[in-house]
Design brief:
Helix content is 47%, strand content 11%. By secondary structure, the protein is an alpha/beta fold. The protein folds into two domains: 284 residues, Rossmann fold, CATH 3.40.50.720; 201 residues, N-(1-d-carboxylethyl)-l-norvaline Dehydrogenase, domain 2, CATH 1.10.1040.
Length: 492
């Protein structure tokens, strides 16, 4: 292989002509956004929209400053700063990959234990939006009630030490306190995580945390800040050796490239207290009806990932596209979606629930996207409670079928036992893995032990229709195997 070209501002003109590079002068950009939790998804999604706006000569006072609040974020910062915060995006399509370098990020705040540098960055008047991708489990929600968990050790620390917080929300509160005292306008807080009503959940986290130490500040934030709801969608695999080989194959030395599917969607509520970029100019949907879009995506795509990933893990199917090629897993996906999820999802302009099932099927089946089953199955304790159980509750309330959703939950319980059906071990894959594994092993003999995890299931343990179905499916899985249980469901 020829010598690789290190990615930097100075080498952009030396990259292959097939790689699209920024058309704009990056030195002329000025920051307007701080993004906390700067992983692959943000760079393939929100950062791309801004990059394309900049390419049009628009909104160049909205560049991104990256940020993180966990020690491991320091390594990401080091890698990105070494290449001038540039990222190579490789689009994986069945017709072949294509690549572009995006330059919408222009800095990265120092990662410090007390988050002082981040707080000062957030307090800068030029910063008008703070965006976050901190995962579905990162909002300190009580799993059973969905309310803010004020008893979490991180929250208790931030309430007692508001000037030296641990959390992203603590840093936001401290910065808003500075802005209030300096007579500055507040910023908009914008969640980009897969949570229904994610803006409302972010408001709850920030206002509730502020109220623990300064009720007047909490009132000011609640009155003057805005927290728009949004829905985000793009499949973005983890970067591993295969992804690094792809970027090297282009002749580029990029330490943090990102691969992604061709499809992107961003639906945003137009509720920004300090202005926003013209995202609609590059394909984002600005609407007052985010709820229906996010309900469709979270209940069908995100729940769909959990439907296929758990049996995939149990049956040693390594990737999501391979799961979709497995006739029983694909059959489970389509039947549960059509009969038990779609009836509780409203159409949106240009897309019916059935059309969306077909779209997801095509996207998940794309063999060019090497998205591991393990990655998608990660953090099931947050994803099942956030994506699957709300639809299950709707089905019980409406009297529609829940047999398939009960089977989905039984497959999750079987996966959390920690072994595959070929005898191989499943490595811990959830922040609450030890608790899940203990319950899963007890449920092998007494299935109800799984449902007695009230932090996830709450009063669902009292819903006899669901309980009976779950107990029957888990017993069948342990007696005759996961494939047999799925076959019985599909034939039923």
């Amino acid at each position: 292989m020829d010598e690789l070209t290190p990615l930097s501002d100075a080498t952009l003109s030396s990259l292959p002509e097939t790689v699209r590079v920024p058309k704009y002068d990056r030195s002329a950009l000025t920051p307007g956004i701080v993004h906390i939790g700067l992983g692959n998804f943000h760079r393939a999604h929100q950062a791309w929209y801004l990059h394309r706006l900049f390419d049009m000569g628009l909104c160049q006072d909205w560049s991104i400053i990256g940020a993180g609040v966990r020690p491991h974020d320091a390594r990401q910062r080091e890698k990105l700063l070494a290449q001038d915060c540039l990222t190579t995006l490789i689009e994986l399509d069945s017709s072949g990959p294509s690549a572009e370098v995006i330059g919408s990020m222009t800095g990265y705040a120092p990662v410090e234990k007390d988050n002082r540098a981040l707080i000062e960055q957030l307090a800068e008047p030029a910063i008008r939006i703070v965006t976050l991708t901190v995962t579905e489990g990162g909002y300190y929600l009580d799993p059973a009630s969905g309310s803010f968990d004020a008893t979490h050790p991180d929250i208790l620390h931030d309430a007692a030490n508001p000037q030296a917080p641990r959390t992203a929300f603590g840093a936001m509160v401290a910065a808003l306190d500075i802005r209030r005292r300096r007579g500055l306008l507040p910023f908009t807080g914008q969640s980009c995580d897969n949570l229904q009503a994610n803006g409302e959940i972010l408001r709850q986290a920030v206002v509730s945390l502020a109220g623990l130490s300064d009720p007047e500040l909490a009132d000011w934030i609640d009155t003057h800040c805005s927290f728009p709801n949004s829905m985000v969608d793009c499949i973005v695999p983890t970067t591993g050796d295969k992804e690094l080989d792809l970027v090297r194959g282009l002749g580029i030395d990029d330490r943090v490239p990102v691969t992604h599917e061709k499809y992107r969607q961003w639906v945003i509520e137009d509720n920004f207290c300090a202005g926003r970029p013209d995202w609609e100019r590059v394909g984002a949907t600005i609407t007052d009806n985010v709820h229906d879009y996010e309900a469709m995506k979270i209940r069908m795509l995100n729940a769909g990932h959990q439907i296929i990933a758990n049996p995939g893990e149990i049956l040693s199917v390594e990737t999501i596209s391979d799961c979709m090629a497995h006739p029983l897993i694909n059959g489970l996906f389509r039947k549960v979606q059509s009969e038990e999820i779609a009836p509780h999802v409203k159409p949106v302009p240009g897309m019916t629930p059935q059309d969306y099932i077909d779209l997801i099927d095509r996207r998940f089946s794309n063999p060019a996207i090497v998205d591991t089953t393990r990655r998608v199955a990660f953090d099931g304790s947050a994803r099942h409670t956030g994506f699957v159980l709300p639809v299950l509750r709707d089905g019980l309330s409406a009297g529609t079928p829940v047999e398939g959703l009960a089977l989905v939950e039984a497959l999750w319980a079987r996966m959390c036992e920690g072994t595959r059906e070929d005898g191989s071990l499943i490595k811990p894959n959830d922040p609450l893995w030890d608790e899940l594994q203990t319950a899963a092993r007890a449920a092998r003999q007494r299935p109800a032990a799984w449902l007695e995890q009230s932090q996830f299931y709450g009063d669902l343990v009292e819903e006899q229709q669901f309980v009976r179905a779950f107990e029957r499916w888990l017993s069948l899985i342990w007696y005759g195997g996961s494939a047999n249980a799925m076959r019985i469901y599909l034939d039923g």
